[in-house]
Every structure is written in structure tokens, then in C-alpha cells.
Amino acid sequence: MSITYKDEAGIAGMRTACRLASEVLDFLTPHIQPGVTTLEIDRLSADYMKQQGTRSATVGYQPPGYPPYPGHLCTSINHVVCHGIPNEKPLKKGDILNVDVTVITPDGWYGDNSRMFLIGGEAACSVQARRLNLVTFEAMWKGIVLVRPGVRLGDIGSAIQAHAEGNGFSVVREFCGHGIGQKFHEEPQVLHYGRPGTMEELKPGMTFTIEPMINAGKRDIKEQGDGWTIVTRDRSLSAQWEHTVLVTPTGYEVLTLSAGSPPPPAFVTTTAC
Ligand code: MF3
Ligand code: CO
Ligand code: CO
After folding, report:
1. d(CA 181, CA 123)
2. How many domains does one find in the chain?
3. Separation of alpha carbons 90 and 71, rounded Å
4. How far, in Å, CA of 113 to CA of 128, rounded?
5. Could you tell me if the CB of 95 is within 6 A of ligand 1?
6. Alpha-carbon separation of residue 71 from 3, 16, 43, 80 (angstroms)
């Protein structure tokens, strides 16, 4: 149970896994529309992973104290913070949906990423929902651009927290980003809040996710009773974006990119440095 530093072969394995995870989201994007159920999205993803030659990391996933997770991905709508289980309820115009995909390649590498979808398009969603989505996307990238050797995880958490709270939103504390490699969740924990100069120092070869969960209201959450679904306690909207990144000798490489990845915000000058 410690941080794993990836060598060239490991980095190649992670690049492939992460690109494939992102391509699952690309494939799903045109299907994510009003009237479609999240279970249909789940089935489509299962078929596509089969075509890719990957497996879902989430189906049957059972950390200590949890029931086995039933979905090939997570679908978290509106006030659902994370780990929403695909179900038969159709998506509606104005919903905001996070789809979180983690694949495993045949050689055992994991790629983990999630995106938000505004159901029915931007115009169908409330001003608050659009702003929450944008601020969460920016918050993820505010963290990513800091990644380089010598920086500490507290620097990253602090930047994410400052952006979220500076815009009047709150950061979920109970769930965090994580190291990833030939295991789904490795050390270190990547908190989305914190103080500069604290926590683990980044070193080349580390791969981890940055995946802030940001609430429009208070940060408090509760579990819904199925053992997995996490919702905001005040039922306010929640958004999340996730990338897997590599620490390079001079900066970072965002690994979960593909043709359909949304372009980064204007303050981001590069996706690999
Ligand atoms: N993909 C999620 C993460 O970013 C974890 C999902 S675990 C599941 O870490 F079991 F809920 F699928
Ligand atoms: Co993750
Ligand atoms: Co994820």
C-alpha cells in the first residue's frame, strides 16, 4: 500500500487505458439525450468496452464494507454527488449528469475519467447549473496546471477549493482523487481542498486523478440507502469532472484525452509539458 511510480512501460500502459476510457465517453456522448435512461447508457458502454477489448472497473467493484457495485459506469444526476447507479428513469431536459467511466486494459492498467452533460443543451439548464458545471470544470483544470515535481498535493487542493469557494460553491470532503495504475484506487489520496505546502510532494512517474465534486449549496452529503449513491444533504445540485494525469519530469501530461474531450479553459496553455 504505497505510491507506485510508473516506468516507461507503465506510462505506455496508462496512456492506452486512459485514452480508451475517454473514448468510451466520446462514444456515449451522442446518446446522452432527454428520454434516454442511464441503464441504456450503461448497456451501450458495456458493448463498447467489449469492442475496445477493455473491461469495466466498476462492475462488481466491492471495497470493504460496500455491496458489489452493479454498473459498468456511474451516472450521477442533479443532486447526486457521485456513485449514482444506472437505472430505468429517463433523463429530462435541464438535468445535469456526470458519467464516470473506468476501464481496465488486458494488461491490467486502469484509466478513470468523468464528464458532465447538460441534458437538452446549455439553454435547457438553469443559470446556476451552467455556472456550477463551468466552475467545477475550471476547478479541475486549476489543479491540473499546478502538477509538476516538487509541488505538493495541498497546493493542488488549495487551488481547487479557492476557485470553488470563491464562486460561492462548496467542496465535498469525503471523496477525493486517487493514485491509479494497476489498481483502481492507490495512494496517494488527492484532496480537493487543503493548505499550500502540505501533503505529499509530487514526483515524476506518479499517476493520479483530479476529480473535484462541487456543490451549489452546502458541502454536506449523505448516502441514499443502496450502499453507493451519494447525494447532497440539502439536495442542492452537485457537479464533478475527472481526469487522470501523469507527473512528468517538468510538469504534467493529461492522460484521459481523446478526440471528443472538451477543450480546456483559456487559462490552460498545454495538456502536456
Ligand atoms: N470512478 C470512480 C472514481 O473516480 C469510482 C467509482 S467506484 C464505483 O474513483 F464502484 F462506484 F463505481
Ligand atoms: Co477516480
Ligand atoms: Co472516476
Report:
1. 39
2. 1
3. 16
4. 24
5. no
6. 28, 22, 9, 15
Quote the ligand 1 centre to 84 CA distance (angstroms): 9
pLDDT given for residue 146 in this prediction: 99
The pLDDT value recorded for residue 86 is 99
In this structure, is residue 94 part of a structural domain? Answer: yes
Kindly give the residue spans of alpha helices, DSSP state H, lying in the chain: 8-28, 38-52, 127-144, 153-166
In a domain, 34, yes or no: yes
Q: How many residues does the chain have?
A: 273
Q: Which atom of ligand 1 is nearest to the CA of 71?
A: 12
Neighbours of 198 (CB within 10 A): 13
In a domain, 125, yes or no: yes
Q: Running along the chain, 273 residues long, what does each successive block of 10 average in pLDDT?
A: 94 99 99 98 99 98 97 99 99 99 99 99 98 99 99 98 99 98 98 98 98 99 98 99 99 99 98 98
Model pLDDT, residue 260: 98
Contact assessment for residue 33 and residue 92, using Cβ atoms and an 8 Å cutoff: no
Please report the atom of ligand 1 found closest to the CA of residue 209. Answer: 4
Classify each residue of 208-228 as buried b or exposed e, where b means 16 or more C-beta atoms within 10 Å of its C-beta.
bbbbbbbbbbebebeeeeeeb
Ligand 1 atom closest to Cα of residue 74: 12
CATH, residue 41: 3.90.230.10
The answer to whether the beta carbons of residues 232 and 225 sit under 8 Å apart is no
pLDDT score for 88: 98
pLDDT for residue 212: 99
**CA–centroid distance, residue 111 to ligand 2 (Å):** 9
**Residue 185 belongs to some domain of the structure:** yes
Using a CB cutoff of 5 Å, list residues around ligand 3, an ion: 100, 112, 242
Which domain covers residue 29, as residue numbers? Answer: 8-254
With beta carbons less than 8 A apart as the criterion, state whether 96 and 117 touch: yes
